[in-house]
């Protein structure tokens, strides 16, 4: 989860989020180069007194300042398109989790197992343990195994919600009457936090997500205990 003073992206817990971070860094390098170049050109224009009274046209210059931005956009667009197709790839999931957004809590169903479903509400501030996170902890966590391809199905029962966990690079809108799908692969164990990222009403800020990544044996024991 993000903490005070962290201005960058959170550490990734999936190959897709790693690729998103790489693309972010790639884009930022290009933006910094453009900013430095334009800033240098503007500063030289402001502070020098050179003029050219005979400059009527500059076709070569116009070709250069048309082609260079086009090439720059290609360098941004190609990795972006590759990433878009990677994010849409579902592959062969080993596990399916169905998520239903409500005002203002989440319901989860483990479709591969019989009668494993529960609601997940935010823990009120007065009931938080000493090591709890205000507005982020829930009474029932999502438990999933790492090193396993997971399919996520997202819908909503009332208004549009959005199931978002930044460390996984997952943001899927839950739309009433529609079933949206994505997949992710967790690389390590841990606790990962997210929130609804569509403004869904008065208590939009109070429907967090807590995902617990565990090994397969712990996950099977947890399923058997439900």
From TrEMBL:
Residues 1-91 form the Cytochrome oxidase subunit II transmembrane region profile domain. GO terms for molecular function: copper ion binding; cytochrome-c oxidase activity; oxidoreductase activity. Pfam families: COX2 (PF00116), COX2_TM (PF02790). It is found in: Mitochondrion inner membrane. One of its GO terms (biological process) is ATP synthesis coupled electron transport. Keywords: Copper, Electron transport, Magnesium, Membrane, Metal-binding, Mitochondrion, Mitochondrion inner membrane, Respiratory chain, Translocase, Transmembrane, Transmembrane helix, Transport. GO terms for cellular component: mitochondrial inner membrane. It is a multi-pass membrane protein. The chain crosses the membrane at residues 20-42, 63-87. PROSITE patterns: COX2, COX2_CUA, COX2_TM. Binds a copper A center. Its cofactor is Cu cation. Signal peptide: none annotated. Residues 92-225 form the Cytochrome oxidase subunit II copper A binding domain. It catalyses: 4 Fe(II)-[cytochrome c] + O2 + 8 H(+)(in) = 4 Fe(III)-[cytochrome c] + 2 H2O + 4 H(+)(out). Belongs to the cytochrome c oxidase subunit 2 family. Component of the cytochrome c oxidase, the last enzyme in the mitochondrial electron transport chain which drives oxidative phosphorylation. The respiratory chain contains 3 multisubunit complexes succinate dehydrogenase (complex II, CII), ubiquinol-cytochrome c oxidoreductase (cytochrome b-c1 complex, complex III, CIII) and cytochrome c oxidase (complex IV, CIV), that cooperate to transfer electrons derived from NADH and succinate to molecular oxygen, creating an electrochemical gradient over the inner membrane that drives transmembrane transport and the ATP synthase. Component of the cytochrome c oxidase (complex IV, CIV), a multisubunit enzyme composed of a catalytic core of 3 subunits and several supernumerary subunits. The complex exists as a monomer or a dimer and forms supercomplexes (SCs) in the inner mitochondrial membrane with ubiquinol-cytochrome c oxidoreductase (cytochrome b-c1 complex, complex III, CIII). This is Cytochrome c oxidase subunit 2. It comes from Cloeon dipterum.
């Amino acid at each position: 989860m993000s903490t005070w003073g962290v201005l960058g992206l959170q550490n990734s817990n999936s190959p897709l989020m790693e690729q998103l971070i790489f693309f972010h860094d790639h884009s930022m390098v290009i933006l910094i180069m453009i900013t430095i170049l334009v800033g240098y050109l503007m500063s030289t224009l402001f502070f020098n007194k050179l003029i050219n009274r005979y400059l009527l046209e500059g076709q070569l210059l116009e070709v250069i300042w048309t082609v260079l931005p086009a090439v720059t956009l290609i360098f941004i667009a190609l990795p972006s398109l590759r990433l878009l197709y990677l994010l849409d790839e579902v592959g062969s999931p080993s596990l399916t989790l169905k998520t239903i957004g409500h005002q203002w809590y989440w319901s989860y169903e483990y479709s591969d197992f019989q009668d494993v479903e529960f609601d997940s509400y935010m823990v009120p501030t007065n009931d938080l343990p000493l090591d709890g996170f205000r507005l982020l902890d829930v009474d029932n966590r999502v438990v999933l195994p790492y090193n396993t391809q997971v399919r996520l199905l997202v819908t909503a029962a009332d208004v549009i919600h959005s199931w978002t966990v930044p460390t996984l690079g997952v943001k899927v809108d839950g739309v009433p009457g529609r079933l949206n799908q994505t997949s992710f692969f967790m690389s390590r164990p841990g606790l990962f936090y997210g929130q609804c990222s569509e403004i869904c009403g008065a208590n939009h800020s109070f429907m967090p997500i807590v995902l617990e990544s565990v090994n397969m044996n712990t996950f099977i024991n947890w399923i058997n205990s439900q």
